[in-house]
Amino acid sequence: MSDHYRRRRGGRKWHFCTNCTDWPDSGFDSRASKPKADQICKTCHAKHNDGVCDHAWLDVPA
């Protein structure tokens, strides 16, 4: 999967947890490189710190 980070098209915050309530399934921009810290979704960051983030970069096809 090449889009490790997603944001809604025209949005300001990047998401990296596929189980984030704001993870966009359609109409999104994507990137593989890490955005600046102030551009990352606080919910994704909290899920990561709590160990409950389903990281986008771990979603690889079988």
Strand content: 5-15%
Distance between the termini: 12 Å
According to DSSP, the number of beta strands is 2
| Overall pLDDT confidence | 89
Radius of gyration: 11 Å
Largest sheet: 2 strands, antiparallel
Poorly predicted parts: none
Q: Please give the domain count.
A: 1
Number of continuous helical runs:
1
Could you give a quick summary of the protein structure above?
By secondary structure, the protein is α+β, with helices and mostly antiparallel strands.
Describe this structure in words.
There is one protein chain. The chain starts with a strand and ends in a 12-residue tail after the last helix. It has a two-stranded antiparallel sheet with strand order 1-2. 15% of the residues lie in helices and 13% in strands. The protein has one domain. It has one helix at 42-50; strands at residues 5-8, 28-31. With 62 residues, the protein is of the alpha+beta class. The model has no long low-confidence stretch (mean pLDDT 89). The protein has 1 helix and 2 strands, in the order E-E-H.
Topology:
Elements: E1 5-8, E2 28-31, H1 42-50
Name a few traits of the molecule.
single chain; 62 residues; alpha+beta; two-stranded antiparallel ribbon; 1 helix; 2 strands
